[in-house]
Amino acid sequence: MSDFDLQDYLFDLRGYLILEKAIDAKLLSELNAAFDAFPELGFGDWWGNVQRLDNNGHAGAELQNIVEAGKPFETLIDHPSWVDRLRRYCGEDGTYVQGLYIDECFASIRRNGGYFPIHSGGQDGVIRNQFRFVNGKFRCGQVNILLALTDIGPGDGGTRILPGSHKSNFAHPVFARDFSERMKDTDETVEGSIEINMKAGDALMFVDALSHGATKRINPGDRRVVIYRYGPSWGNTRYGFRYSQELLDRLTPAQRRILEPILPRQPGTERGLER
Fold this sequence. Notes:
Blueprint: H1 3-14, E1 16-19, H2 25-36, E2 46-47, E3 50-52, E4 60-64, H3 71-75, H4 83-90, E5 100-110, E6 116-119, E7 133-134, E8 137-138, E9 143-148, E10 159-161, H5 179-182, E11 194-196, E12 203-207, E13 212-214, E14 223-232, H6 245-250, H7 253-259
Antiparallel strand pairs: 1-12, 2-3, 3-4, 4-5, 5-14, 6-13, 7-8, 9-12, 9-14, 10-11, 10-13
């Protein structure tokens, strides 16, 4: 069995892959330098076309639409370490709408705390984030890339997942409590879950239907990650961000098709599906 086949098998079985040394040392350094240069922003503040919107602002910061923050983030759009697999898993390969779309992309800085309840799962049956394999093809609704820019070990606030839960027909008992109540906790115990540890430069690829959350960070310093969520080209952005013309003009045609897979259909333009 080839390595590519093994990766497909493990992705189907577990719902995730760990891509070791996904980016080289140069890009890793550039991304961390970009993090160092982020300005201090309050919740909701804009920095160019980037906006701070935190899921758990008490524990750090999340900068949305981070692809607008410079060349290193643009490089991640179609990075060779993951783009071909993404096309296989959620790019509607072999159909008339094949192609990828970035649903959300953000930089996350986590300090002490930062717990986030485990959520999602195959039992939800949500088309947006579903795992499907039909007639020999992956037809996933959303696949995420979580790129570690710092080492993430025990106590660093790593991602918590339930392996195989993307195919579950039943909700884990932890979901019996309302999510809003669980958000008030400082951490949780989820039987069957594991914590993902990674080295800086590694990437976690997982289908969004996989039950996932974040463990509490208890170590000093920051945990830095970048998260890009990909889906089929017919998707739409979660927050309605629009990309600046300056960014679009800099991108390669392949990169631009991922950010804008379907052009607006209006008088004076050609069909929206082609570029």
